[in-house]
């Protein structure tokens, strides 16, 4: 998987191509290469929920140019955490 690390986030390029069952494996690969990255302060469940939400939006045709890649932010405000928790749970049912 291709990705780019920014000061406040990791951009997963073409993340919509990765199925939900392989997300953990991809994140582990990135973590092994960049263990000091700020993203790892978040839980795996939180990170995967954000990623699944992007994939669901892409599958639904919502802003496809923006949702084909997932920008995983190192820190999230409480309302984004709540949104991704809910949307990620819904996405689990519907995405590949």
Radius of gyration: 12 Å
Reading side by side through the largest sheet, how are the strands ordered? Answer: 1-2-3
Low-confidence stretches: none
Number of helices: 4
DSSP summary, beta strand count: 3
Averaging pLDDT over every residue, what do you get?
96
Strand coverage percent: 5-15%
Q: What percent of residues adopt helix (DSSP H or I)?
A: 40-55%
Distance between the termini: 17 Å
Question: How many domains, in number, for the residues?
Answer: 1
Polypeptide structure, described:
There is one protein chain. With 96 residues, the chain is mainly alpha-helical. It has one domain (3-94). Helix content is 50%, strand content 11%. A 3-stranded antiparallel beta sheet has the order 1-2-3. A hairpin with a 3-residue loop joins strand 1 and strand 2. Helix 2 crosses helix 4 (78-94). The two termini are 17 Å apart.
Key features?
96 residues, 3-stranded antiparallel β-sheet, mainly alpha
In summary, what is this structure?
This protein has 96 residues and is mainly α. The chain contains four helices and three strands, in the order E-E-H-H-H-E-H.
